[in-house]
Amino acid sequence: MREPTVDVAADVAANYFQSYSVVGLLAVVGVLFVAVAFGAGRLLRPVVPTPEKLLTYECGVDPVGEGWAHTQVRYYVYAFLYVIFAVDSIFLFPWATVFAAPGYGAATLVEMFVFLGFLAVGLLYAYKKGVLTWT
């Protein structure tokens, strides 16, 4: 019986890098395709700037005042709370599937209670700060 030679290892490495070269080639072709499309659009479009075209467009109404608007911080907090509970719900469905599988019960249950504990701390913090009151 013959021992495997270096040629076998080189062949395996060549096949390995050949599959990545195909992915790299596709990435380069994709970037070139987008660059050519943007370049063609820039060369072929008509450029006739007028003062009306350079105005900020807001649903057909002429802009009034300055462009900066004050936004209250509580809206960001509401968005943050939504993200917390969205992540919670997304995490619970696969957890229930894994928990139902045999042999994963105790460790999965502990992990879920740690995760829910972090969420409870975040909810308690939001409650203490008065974020959950609608006033």
Q: Can you lay out the helices and strands and say which pair or pack?
A:
Elements: H1 6-44, H2 73-100, H3 105-128
Helix pairs in contact: 2-3
Structure description:
By secondary structure, the protein is an all-alpha fold. Helix content is 67%, strand content 0%. It contains 3 helices and no strands. The protein has helices spanning 6-44, 73-100, 105-128. The longest helix is centred in the N-terminal third of the chain and has 39 residues, at 6-44. It starts with 5 loop residues before the first helix and ends in a 7-residue tail after the last helix.
* Count of extended strands: 0
Instruction: Please outline the major beta sheet.
Output: none
Q: Helix share of residues?
A: 55-70%
- Rg estimate, integer Å: 29 Å
Classify the beta-strand content into a percent band. Answer: under 5%
Order of helices and strands: HHH
- Helix tally equals 3
Structure characteristics:
135 residues, mainly alpha, 0% strand, flat
Overview in brief:
The protein has 135 residues and is mainly alpha-helical. It is built from three helices and no strands.
